[in-house]
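Suppose a classmate hands you a notebook page containing two proteins, each written out with its sequence and a corresponding row of structure tokens. How would you begin to make sense of it? This section walks through that situation. The first entry is reproduced here exactly as it would appear on such a page.
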Amino acid sequence: MTAFRSDGYVRLRDYAVIGDGRSAALIAADGSVDWLGTPDLDSPSVFAAVLDPARGGRFLLEPEEPFTVTRRYLPGTNVLETTFTTGRGSVRVTDSLTLEGDGTLGPMRELQRRLDGVAGTVPLRWSVQPRFGYGARRPRIARRAGVPVAVAGGDALAVCTWDAGEPQCADRAISGRLELGQGRRALLAMPFAHREPLVLPTRSDCDARMEHTVAAWRGWSRERSYEGMWRDAVLRSALALKLLIFAPSGAIAAAATTSLPEHVGGGRNWDYRFSWVRDSVFTLDALLRLGCPTEAHAYFWWLMHATQLTHPRLRVLYRLDGGGDAPERTLPFEGYRGSQPVRTGNAAGGQVQLDTYGELLQTGWLYAGAAGRLDADLARRLAELADFVCAAWRDRDSGIWEVRSAPLHFTHSKMMCWVALDRAVDLCERGLIRDRGSARWRLARDQVRDFVETRCFSSRRRCYTRSAGSSELDAAVLLGLLHGYARPGDPRMRATVDTIGRELRHGPFVDRYSGEDGLGGAEGAFLACSFWLAECLARTGRRDRAIALMDDLIGLANDVGLYSEEIDPDTGAFLGNLPQGLSHLALISAACAIGSGGEGTGG
């Protein structure tokens, strides 16, 4: 590809991501690190040029003459390899947030950029422009033991160089240039720290960490058990999800970024660096299917700990440290191509979304099936959640899509209330939950189904609608099939799959819903919905159609196999935060279901 920027921005499709289990960085195709939070994935940024080229900060690295770009992840890894080709030669850049050799999470955090001359001679320039605290804190740049160091409050980073030109320290940047010939190697290492000692590494230390990082990722990939259709895409999705796991707690972030727009120039810009309960079923199921028991166990118990803090009520989302507060505020950034406001925090955390109770009970049910038992305290809590659903299912809520219009009786929410009660009954019948209320749960379950079948199904449209009494559509009702409210042979669900495919689908793209949501502006097609439709087609016996749709969807990934939250159907442009965990989770779920003949996690 030919890398270029328009008004300082690159296409969202042109970003790749690297990470180390604590933070993640976005790297543009032109070699610029345009996003990095420090010290953690959900921390304030030190590089945020993706949101504001002038004030956000970046780590620039590029040839000084016109160039083209090819890139890939080293096979089986999250280590990025970018090859720049100019009229005079080519250079390969290997980027990684490196891992410690002993596998522990020590204080060392490091972004490494290794440069190798492939052919000819290429002049390059680099510039580290730190802007700590979302650009709010001006760094002080000085030298320590001859090494340039930028400091702001409790944050610090160093720029260590070997054969990469003499670093020049300016007011707000550390820069250099070099000419790299064939067979030569240069190295840039940026260790960073937050309220901890800043360790200045040796070159041999850096080389050892890079080699260990590659080996560690490949070792992890070799242990993944999936051997079905679209294996490369499934493995890349698994690696993308691994980058979203916050290793200190086991939580999985919905995405690595904040405020990347659902419509360029619009206001649908949200912070996704939190863990949503709605994703929990897909998350645990994917980890179990891919042979990730350590990650599955850590995630499940993080989820149980986080939800205990607000029990029996559930928050829509939780911070990666398990906290339930996510106050929303606006940052003084321009926003991606002028998309404002730029937000940190997420006010949706305070909404009522009744579907979350179904997703949590379904997740507990999956875990119990894998483990063969439930801890007594956990069993008691799941029973209390079922009791809560008995009392709350009649309420209106904001639904899975977090609309900011008036609450409604959303069909998907009611379906998931049914799932919550059904899973509690099943766990009780299997002796995994003490029988303290199963008769009440059965009665409420029947009442929920009667509500859905009499008030949320349109005989005229021959499908389940978005909410009780409406004629609008909602792709989220597909989850009624995927999570077990409906059986594959159910004629109403089969007709709903057909109606959504006919009216919300455009080519491979599926809109989330029709109707108002209390927000201005437009959005792209939500990728997870497309994968859900493919899985539903497979489960309802239309496997050939499911495979054809999946083939189209696999082709929508960017050049390194990543997906954003949404895609503009007209232009193919990525929209929304990235990499988007739910997009990759839905891909894994659909691939597994299609490959196994349509079987899934539903009861």
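The notebook's second entry, a different protein, reads as follows.
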Amino acid sequence: MFHAFAFSALADRSAGHPASWRRPFLRWLDGIEAGWAVPLLLACFVIVWTIYLCIAYAGAGLHPDVLETWSFGRQFSWGNVKHPPLMGWIAGAWSSVFPASDGSFHLMAMTNAALALWCVDLVTRRFAAGDKRVIVLLLLMLTPAYQFHAQRFNANSVQLATWPLATYCFLRAFETRTLPWAAAAGLTAALTVLGKYYSVFLLASFALAAAAHPQRRAYFTSASPWISTVVGLAALSMHLDWLMAHDAMPIQHALAHARSDLATSLRDALFFVLGLLAAMAVAAVTWIVVAGPRIRRFAAEMSGLNDGLRLLAYIAIGTVCLPVANALIMGTDLPSLWALQGLFLFVVVVVCGASYPVERFHTVNMTVLTAAIAVAAALVGAPLHALYRNTHGYEEGRTYYQEVANEATRQWREWTGRPLARVDGTESLALATAFYSPDHPVYGSGAADQAGHSNDDYGRVSLCFQDQPDCIAAAEDAAARSGSFIKREFVVQSRLLGWLGCTRGVVALLVTR
């Protein structure tokens, strides 16, 4: 009790006579409703965390998921073998403006995270103004979702932006029941599905939340939900047509995760919930410190939410409970990282549901904490990470990507006298070679180039690490059936600013027809 009183007195004294270092932050907070404070916060977020990624992964290639996303985006398509097409569309659009480089894709990942936070702010603005808008963003920045999860730009991280955008449009459609918002809700709902099929849990949560809400009759007897449904299906029609024409390949890929027994599913469900709690731990502790003794009113405040926040709370609960129920019924895998994009729902409900204002003293402290963590990560954590990985490497071999791509391309050109058109083998090396090779070969077997000719006509290079006997055996068998080939072996070594690191052997099979 004494600590709470002392903390409150300190906050009151700071409000009356703020320290000189606090004044720039106070002026910034005054600009929230003026419209410039949140964009400035997001711009700083992008700059600092892009710097972190560039330093932390110096000497290493992009994550294989990012390379795969780039590969999917090389040609426009309404689908691909693993996932819906949105992530490939974004990567393709980005690559048409920015170069295909590590720094460029780090910037893309953080820009997507900032866009996601801006969409969260759209939702927050429905329920709060002023400092609470920034507090929601700062608490989310204290989770791993918008930096470390976001840097792997794939079907999971693309949902960081689509989920809050769809939620915002659904809230407006539920409140207004007008044609424009109903259509927007359907369009953005379709966008989430084009990002990842996991988003069906968000859409199901919309329906269940609306059904549980006191205003359900007014909503379901209006045209709004039916307009949303029609518009959403229309927006998905081309993708559905692609699925039928390609034997629903991405759905089959998703169903490959549905092979667990009940005991495994129960364990996955438990770790799913625990993982989400762990992701929220720092943000939760920070909010408890800010709330102080007022945290005792939490249960009463949650039970007394207004209609809009109540709807949002129902959606939040659905996005956790529905995947767990599905995992137990169908035996699907359930990593917690699949649900990180839904954490914003809980943060908005808790912060905006608090009946009390948050003192500027606490908002400034939270800002400084968040900024200090980001700057320390960029200036201290990132260099240490880069040094460690240069000597210890990654399981997928990211520290060797550039060297393998260059050496495989050199040997192919030396042997055939023509550019490298196709690459396969172990997925990480093949994707990396497609990205880092100056020839940018197509990844995968039987692929076609932009002129429509099969790249089998031009041969291929199959790449495996020497410690991957299954990959080597499969590549040798395929090469023997394809035609003329030679086998080359070479050793690559990681480098960081001239410092030599770990080594690894590579096997390359150069196949011509």
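A careful reader of the second entry would note: The radius of gyration is 25 Å.
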